[in-house]
Structure formats: C-alpha cells, structure tokens
Amino acid sequence: MSDHLTVVDHPLVQHKLTLMRDKGTSTSEFRRLLREITQLLAYEITREMELTSTTIDTPMEEMEAPILAGKKLALVSILRAGNGMLDGVLELIPSARVGFVGLYRDEETLKPVQYYFKAPEAMEDRLVIAVDPMLATGNSSAAAIDLLKEAGATNIRFLCLLAAPEGVAKMKEAHPDVPIVTASLDRQLNEKGYILPGLGDAGDRMFGTK
Ligand code: URA
C-alpha cells in the first residue's frame, strides 16, 4: 500500500456511512452498520496480504490454490470506539491477535492521556492494523502509533471510518510510514475537535452513552 490516505468510495460504503451519520439512526443500527462498513474497509486494507499456495482436491480435480501465507496479524483497538470496528475485522480474520490502547482525550487540551496498553507478543513480525472510527485531531491516533512502534511494530496500518484533514496531516507528519484507509475525508474540525459534518461522538452513538 503506497498511498498515505485511501478513501474507499465504494457505493455500499458510502450508503452505509450516510445512514450512520444520520442522527435518527438508532444505537443498534449504528453498531450493525459500523461492523458491516468495517468489513468492507478491511477488504481494502488487507488487499496486499501475502498469499502462498496449497494443494487441494476439488470435487473435480487436484489444484494448486491460493491461501493466506499465515503471516502474523495483530489488530489493535484504540479504546473505546475502536471496539466497534474490532468485531467486524475479527469476523473476517478470526485468527488475528488483538491488542488494546486506552487513551482518552483531555477535553481542555485535546491531548491524549494513556490509561491502558496491551499488545500481542512479537509485534515486530506482525502486520498491525490499528482501528479507531474517528481520525479527528490525530493526537490520540499518533500517540497510539507511537506506543505500537515502542512495542516493536514496524508494519502498521490505520483503519478509520471518518478522517478530518487536520488528523490526516498530523498522522502524515508523525507517521508517514503508516497508510490510512477511511470511508470519508470530511471537511474540518470544530473548536471542540469534533469532525464536521461527521457523525457526532462515535463511542456515544455505538454504546448509547452521552
Ligand atoms: N471523536 C468522535 O467520536 N467524534 C468526533 O467527531 C471526533 C472525535
């Protein structure tokens, strides 16, 4: 994956995203849509996973068939909203190892504060996909990637639902080696660091909190 930012403009992704943005969409519907959209985005972010081949017998004949090379994969959820995307990717790649980064955003400074970190072993050998629906200021995303690199990761991708130009710029500056896949590059952030037009607080919308 060579581009720093990939916006997946597939009609199914865009349709589901519109439903998610609508403030009338219920919590359960929001969660379901997030899981579905994540699987479509995961299709894009995993498209360069290495294949090898294996010999199988179809009902017709023997064939040499492609199969994942079994390179280790780690999914890392950036808490708490990342968990809404994690399930979707895990359904596609059930054998992936899972890590968690707990960061909350100080509402005054908009800076990330770490409260939890747990990563699978041998991060240096893994393709690491970090998931967080909202790339807003980019501060917490960049801090999460810092932690993953400190844990040894060298091959990292970032999967989000919405990105703000400010967040993309921050990630490009801090981690130009980490490609980003998203469903939309939105217009801007507001003064509180929320994405416009956005969809509001992703965690609140998926967990029904306020
Ligand atoms: N986090 C969210 O949940 N929503 C935003 O718009 C920005 C950050």
Mean pLDDT figure: 95
What's the N-to-C terminus distance?
37 Å
Tell me, what is the CATH class? Alpha Beta
Residue share in β-strands: 25-35%
CATH topology: Rossmann fold
> Could you say how many structural domains there are in total?
1
Radius of gyration: 18 Å
Q: Which H/E pattern describes the elements? A: EHHEEEHEEEEHEEHEEEEH
Q: What's the overall geometry? A: globular
Based on secondary structure, the structural category is: alpha/beta
Largest pleated sheet:
7 strands, mixed
Cofactors and ligands? uracil
Low-confidence stretches: none
**Strand elements, count:** 14
CATH architecture: 3-Layer(aba) Sandwich
Helicity range? 25-40%
Strands side by side in the biggest sheet: 1-11-9-7-4-5-6
Q: How many distinct helices?
A: 6
Family: Belongs to the UPRTase family.
Binding site for 5-phospho-alpha-D-ribose 1-diphosphate: 80, 105, 132-140, 201
GO molecular function: GTP binding; magnesium ion binding; uracil phosphoribosyltransferase activity
Pfam families: UPRTase
